[in-house]
Specification:
Rossmann fold, 6-stranded parallel sheet, 3-stranded antiparallel sheet, binds adenosine-5'-diphosphate, alpha/beta, 11 helices, 349 residues
């Protein structure tokens, strides 16, 4: 099973390393605008193979992506300390305009996994450009809020429970407006209050909630300030997503994809729990949120919607970027409008 990675910077190469260490796939092709970088990373990671799993890894060109089941897009310009994720958007649009068609020219049946930031918008853009090739948006997914699992880690340490046994979702934008779904957090199938009572632990206070919320929301910025990049968490999340895709695992993951059927989020790409299988995002799972959480989710969706609209991807009458507008019918077949939408997207931002 072949996996392509376009963009062999810190995130792309760490994703490759995580795939090797986890033993996901059989062949990895690393690509980069700077071929020497891709070759250097592939050779370096190849030295880890004897200590991990039998995989081949090499540098390649777009033509080498033929038959890739999954292509990870980690290409882009880096976020710099002090810059918000949304500010890097404009610089990354041009990269995707070139990268997505180049991938699909050779790997038309692949699933795209987007990790470039701002990830929700870049995933939306990738789906937009991919629609010109007849690809349904369910086959274009982003890492979403998967690495905001720090929420689970902090709750786990608060209650003295392994984070793997804490269920707590972060939804919405992967960024400042993301929403911690406190009302749905459970340990051992119980709400936190109930679990605290059974364990004889103190109830979690509003002050503690605010502190955890702040830590989850700000930690990415702290890491950037300290070392200029983040890649271990995201690389591990990518390996998990690819494992789920290649093995049709039907896992519930907070990836991002273009949302349909969730109040306040229609047509926006953001993070929500999805059922993920071999064909990509099988379905989104709407959550029974408290009104305050629902409002926060809708606020997050409208921030993303505004950012997308600011790109002016299509003519005003065709700005909703829906599958229909992009020319993809329900069965994923390409219609005549696809070329029109794609060429409008290529020409204007
Ligand atoms: P990150 O920390 O997000 O991985 P990096 O700057 O380390 O950021 O990596 C981004 C990578 O994307 C760089 O290696 C850069 O050369 C690559 N890249 C940028 N534009 C393109 C492009 N159009 N095609 C392929 N790779 C690209």
């Amino acid at each position: 099973m072949k996996i392509g990675i376009v963009g062999s910077g810190m995130v792309g190469s760490t994703s490759a390393f995580a795939l090797v260490m986890r033993g996901v796939g059989r062949e990895i092709v690393l690509m980069d605008r700077t071929r020497a970088r891709a070759e250097a990373e592939a050779n370096d990671i190849l030295h880890a193979v004897p200590f991990a799993h039998p995989l081949t890894i090499r540098a390649g060109d777009y033509g080498d992506l033929v038959d890739c089941r999954v292509v990870i897009i980690a290409a882009g310009v880096t976020i710099v300390p002090g810059e918000t994720r949304l500010q890097v958007l404009q610089r990354n649009v041009a990269v995707f305009e070139q990268v997505v068609p180049s991938i699909l020219q050779y790997a038309g049946d692949t699933i795209l996994v987007v990790v470039s930031n701002p990830v929700d918008i870049m995933t939306h853009l990738a789906a937009y450009f991919a629609a010109g090739f007849g690809m349904p948006s369910t086959r274009v997914i982003g890492s979403g809020t998967m690495i905001d699992t720090r929420f689970r880690a902090l709750l786990g340490s608060r209650f003295g429970v392994d984070a793997q046994h804490v269920h707590a979702y972060v939804i919405g934008e992967h960024g400042d407006s993301e929403v911690l779904t406190w009302s749905l957090a459970t340990i051992a199938g119980m709400p936190l209050e109930e679990f605290a009572r059974i364990r004889g632990a103190a109830l979690i206070t509003d002050m503690e909630k605010r502190q955890i919320d702040e830590q989850v929301r700000r930690v990415g910025y702290q890491i950037l300030a300290g070392k200029g990049a983040t890649y271990y968490g995201i690389g591990s999340a990518v390996a998990r997503i690819v494992d789920v895709l290649l093995n049709d695992q039907r896992a519930v993951l907070t990836i991002c994809s273009r949302i349909q059927g969730v109040v306040g989020c229609e047509g926006v790409t953001l993070g929500l729990p999805h059922l993920v299988g071999g064909q990509g995002a099988m379905s989104v799972i709407p959550l029974p949120l408290k009104p305050v959480e629902q409002e926060a989710l809708e606020r997050s969706a409208s921030i993303l919607r505004e950012a997308i609209e600011s790109l002016k991807l299509t003519s005003p009458g065709n700005a909703d970027l829906s599958d229909e507008a992009a020319g993809v019918s329900n069965d994923g077949a390409k219609s005549e409008n696809a070329d029109i939408a794609a060429s409008a997207g290529n020409g204007k931002r």
